[in-house]
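Input sequence (117 aa), recorded before submission:
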Amino acid sequence: METVVMSDLPPGIPPADAVLAVDCYTKLIEHYPGHRWRVTADHKGGVVFIQLLYAGVERKEWEWGWVIHIDRLNGDPSLRAIVKAGGELLERFRLARGPAQADAMQRALENGIDGTR
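Predicted structure, token format:
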């Protein structure tokens, strides 16, 4: 499993946002290994945003993602809402819930992720 090191995160991210984003990211790679996830958390805005990155460009804003309100996670210590959202996002691009297959990037691009933005 991939390890996230807090010191590797971009500077300026509030610690609470970083911790929540890493927790959610870790949960996604635990359930759906091999997929390229991007997770951001914003306590001020009250949301966690989940995206799939399948065009080889990190930290790029994508049109598609999944928003979860942080309040919803307060009563969800196992982050089941994150797992469900990740699975729903995979299915939107006709990717199976589970580990990434060898053709995941090609299938994601064929099914709606726009890598040209």
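Checked by second reader. Residues 18-110 form one domain.
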